[in-house]
Protein 1
Amino acid sequence: MGKIDEIIKEKGLTPKDCEYHTRRLLENDGKIRVLVIKGIPVAYAEYKCPKCGHEGYSEQEYKKVSKASKIRLRVECEKCHLNIKVDKLKGKKEKKK
Ligand SMILES: [Zn+2]
C-alpha cells in the first residue's frame, strides 16, 4: 500500500475532504500521485521517477498557481533530482477514484 493510501486511511478521508487528488502516468513507466487535503497547504506526492525508476515520496508546500501556469506543481526525484512536473488538465475533469 502506498503512502497516500495510508494517509487517506489514517485520516479517514473521503473525496470531499480532498482539495486536489490526481494520478498521472508518465513516460518510461513512471507515475505520480498527488494528494492535497482541504485546509492543509501540503502536497503529498508519491512517484516513480520516469528517468531513474526510483520510487519515492515527498511532502511539499502546496501553493495555488496562477491561471496562466500550465504546471500545477513540481516534485523533485530524491535520487536523480529530475523535476517531475504535474501539469494541469485543461478543460476536462480530473479522474477520481
Ligand atoms: Zn529519478
Protein 2
Amino acid sequence: MATHTGGLTATVPETGTAAVRISGLVRAFGERRVLDGLDLSLRAGEFVAMLGRSGSGKSTLLRALAGLDHDAGGEGELSAPDHVSVVFQDARLLPWKRVLANVTLGLSGADAQERARTALAEVGLAGREDAWPVELSGGEQQRVSLARSLVREPQLLLADEPFGALDALTRARMHTLLARLYERHRPAVLLVTHDVDEAIALADRVVVLDGGHIAADLPVDLAAPRRPGTPEYAVLRERLLVRLGVEVPSG
Ligand SMILES: Nc1ncnc2c1ncn2[C@@H]1O[C@H](COP(=O)(O)OP(=O)(O)OP(=O)(O)O)[C@@H](O)[C@H]1O
Ligand SMILES: [Mg+2]
C-alpha cells in the first residue's frame, strides 16, 4: 500500500482486503474546502460508481487518490494500493507515438510488447498496433487508453468520466467492454460519471458526493441483466436522482 502525504497523515490499512481507505479527507483551494471530512472505503475488487454535481469535488478526490494533487492543501488519512491506473475523459495518447508504443509507455520487462498486444486485442484493437492516435476514432482512442491502464494490472482503476465524450451507442459498447475487462482483471474501480444509468449498470455500489463528503452510499442489489423498467431499478434510480437534487416527477 502506498500512502500519500503532503498535509495528509500516512496510514497503512490493517486488513488486506481494503483497496482504498479514506478518512476525514480535506482538500482545499485557498479558503475553499472542496472535500470536507470525506470518508470512503473500497474493498479489493469492488466496483464503485461516484455521482455528484459539477464542481462537487469528484476529480479532486480522484487526483488525491492518484497522488496527483500537489496544488491542493489537505488533511486526513488516505491509503491506496501501489498499482493505480487512471483513465480520463480524453484518452491523452501521445500523438507522436503509434498505438502500441502508447500502450508500452513506461512498461518494463522483455514481454512488454507482447503484453501490450494482448491488451490491445482485449479491447478489440488487434491489428491497429501501428496506427497513429489521430487515425483512431474517439471511442477507439479511449479503448487504447483502457488497454494502457489494464496492461499494468492495477489494483485500483480510477476512471474520471471515461465515456462522457462518446456518443450513446459507443458508450453502450464501452460499458459492455469495461464490464468484461473488470470481470477478467478484477481491480477495484472508482468510476466517476454523470450518468445514473451507467452507474447502476456497472457498479456494485453507487456513492453521491455532495457538500464535500459522501452524502449517499447505496448498494446495487439488482439481478443481472440490470435493465431499466423493473420496479427495483426505478426505485434506485429515483433515490439517486433525488440525492443529486434532480426533481423527479411523481406518478
Ligand atoms: N487547481 C485548482 N485550483 C483552484 N480550484 C480548483 C482546482 N481544482 C479544482 N478546483 C475547484 O474545486 C472544485 C471541485 O472541482 P472538481 O474538478 O473536483 O469538480 P468535479 O466534481 O470533478 O466537477 P465536474 O463534474 O464538472 O468534472 C471546483 O469548484 C473547482 O473550481
Ligand atoms: Mg471532474
Protein 3
Amino acid sequence: MNTIRKHAGKFALGVLLVAGFNAAGAQAPAAAETCTGCHNDNGITDSAEIPTIAGVGGFFLENQLAIFAESERPCVAEGFADEDAENHCALISQLSEDDRMAIAEYFGELSYQPFEQEVDESLAAQGESIHNASCDRCHTASGAEPFDDAGILAGQPIPYLVDQFEYYKAGERWQPESMAEEMQKLDADQMKALAHFYAGAWE
Ligand code: HEC
Ligand code: HEC
C-alpha cells in the first residue's frame, strides 16, 4: 500500500530517474511543512537544542511521534508561540497516523550528519567507559547504528543529549525498563562525560 502510493507520487513528479539513486531526491510529505522550520528540509539540525532526525531510523521516528502525541516525553514549547500549536506534543497530535508514517519514512531515509561541536577528549574517554558498561548492549557502534531502533546518539548536540539524560533519569520520558535502571545511576558529571563521548563518536 505504502510502496504503491510512493511510486505513484514519483511518477507524478517525474523524478523517477533520480529516485533510485538518492533518497535526497524524495519530496518531503506536505505534512512535514510544519516541521522543517526547526528541523530543516534535510532533517539535519543547526541548533544545539534540536536533534538531527535524518537517518535515525523510520521505526524509531514513528515511535517518537506516537510518544509525543501521547505526551509521554517532554513537550518543548519554545518557538511554538506563533505556530498553530502551543508545543511540540500538540503539533504532533494534530497529525493523522498516515501523515506520521509518511513523515517518519521521509526523514528516516535521509542521510545522517553529525552536529559540529567541540568535544573534550578527556571527558569523552570517561564517557566511553560508562557507555561500554551500561549502554553499549542496546546502543551498538557507539550509538551510531539506526537498526538498533534506539535512535542515533553519535554526533547529536551535547545540550540536547544532556537534556534527554535528565528527562530519563527524572522519569519524564518513556523508556525501556532496563534502560531506566541504567539512567537512575547517572550523576551530572557522568551525563556530561557521556554527552561528550557521543558527540565525538560519529565516524
Ligand atoms: C519550534 C521548533 C520545532 C518544530 C516546529 C518541530 N520540532 Fe521536532 N523538535 C524540536 C525540539 C527542540 C526537539 C527536542 C525536544 C527535547 O529536547 O525533548 C525536537 C524533537 C523532535 C524529535 C525527537 C527526535 C529524537 O531523536 O528523539 C522528533 C522525531 C521530532 N522533533 C519531529 C518533529 C516533527 C515530525 C515535526 C513537525 C510535525 C516537528 N518535530 C516540529 C523542535 C521543533
Ligand atoms: C535495554 C536496552 C537499552 C539500554 C541498556 C540503554 N538504552 Fe537508551 N534506548 C533504548 C531504546 C530502545 C531507545 C528508544 C526508545 C524509544 O523508542 O523511545 C533508547 C533511547 C535512548 C535515547 C534517546 C535518543 C534520542 O535521540 O531521542 C538516549 C539519549 C539514550 N537511549 C541513552 C542511553 C544511555 C546513555 C544509556 C546507558 C546509560 C542507555 N541509553 C541504555 C534502549 C536502551
Protein 4
Amino acid sequence: MPGTVISPESSPLLRAYATLDRTTPLAIDCGLLCDHRCCKGDDDSGMLLLPGEELLLKDEEGYRFLHGGDETLLICSGTCRRHLRPFACRIFPLFPVVTPGSGDSLNIRLITDPRGFSLCPLAYGRIPLHGIFRYLVRRATRILLEDPPIAAWLLKHSNLITALEEVRFSIESRQE
Ligand code: SF4
Ligand code: SF4
C-alpha cells in the first residue's frame, strides 16, 4: 500500500512494538548463553508474521518475505535493527496462547513456545525469565487483541501451538 501512513497512536502493532522495545527475556543478554542461536536461521526457517507486519517491515534491508496460504514468513539475514524486529522475535521464547473467555473477552496464557525447544536454552524453564519481560509480553498481546485480524490470527495459532505443546508434554512424560 504505497503512501500508507500508520499512526503510532492508532496502530496496535506499533504500540505493541513500543511496549517490547526495551525488554529482554533475562536481565542479561541471553544470547551469551547460546551464541544468539535464534538469530542464526537459514533459508528454511523464519518468523511467522502477524497480519499487518509485512507492511511495517517490507522496506527493511535484509528481510525477505515468503507467502503461503494466509501466512507470511520473514527470513532475515541474521542481523536487524532492533526497533524493526518482528513481534515473534520480541516475545521469543514465549508465545501468548489466546482463548475465548466469558462474553466477548479473551484470555491470555503465556507458555514457552514448543517450537523453541530444540533451539533455546531458556525453553526448559530452568532459568526463570525476567518478570517484567513476561508482564510486557502479556501487555503487548492485550494491545494486539484490539486489532480484529490479529486477534483472529492469535486465536487460530493458539490452537496449533497448544496442540504442539501437548505433543511435547506427551513425549516428555514417556521419557520420564
Ligand atoms: S535462543 Fe533463547 S537464549 Fe538464545 S538468544 Fe534466543 S531467546 Fe535468548
Ligand atoms: S529479525 Fe532480528 S531478532 Fe529476529 S531472528 Fe532476525 S536478526 Fe534475530
